[in-house]
Amino acid sequence: MSARILIVDDNLDAAELLGEILQLDGHATWLAQDARAALQAAHRFRPDVAILDIGMRGMNGFDLARAMRADPAMASIRLVALTGWASEDYRQRAREAGFDAYLVKPAGIEVLRAYLV
Q1: pTM, entire model
Q2: CATH number of this structure's domain 4-113
């Protein structure tokens, strides 16, 4: 089953690589490098899933998740954190922000695929 996936990461190389892998799996992808661009993209692209980095400049992934959850047009998007921050405190903050899943980099593509459908 293919999905529409928004990838939000300030590391463009990482975002592009993940996007290419997911496209090979048959998914449609859209990349954004910051929270503002992600919010705009989510309204245009209407993703099923958003994969968000946590440690971004400006609005971080926690704040972005809260903003997406507060918008009725984005409330049903499955939110997956994909981050290098591994502590239990960050996992708890992610749950409180509304994430559906919390994956630590480098998460294998098979692990990520389990959260896409």
Answers
A1: 0.94
A2: 3.40.50.2300
Among 57, 58, 68, CA closest to 94? 68
**Angle (deg, nearest 10), helices 61-70 and 88-97:** 20
Please report the DSSP string for the chain in residue order: ---EEEEE-S-HHHHHHHHHHHHHTT-EEEEESSHHHHHHHHHHH--SEEEE-S--SSS-HHHHHHHHHHSTTTTTPEEEEEES---HHHHHHHHHHT-SEEEESS--HHHHHTT--
Taking the alpha carbons at both ends of the chain, their separation in whole angstroms is 7
pLDDT over 80 at 89, yes or no: yes
What's the rounded Cα separation, in Å, for the pair 35 and 43?
13
Domain map of the chain by residue range? 4-113
Question: Is it the case that residue 90 has pLDDT exceeding 90?
Answer: yes
Q: Which of 19, 71, 78, 15 is nearest to 48 (CA)?
A: 78
Residues across the chain: 117
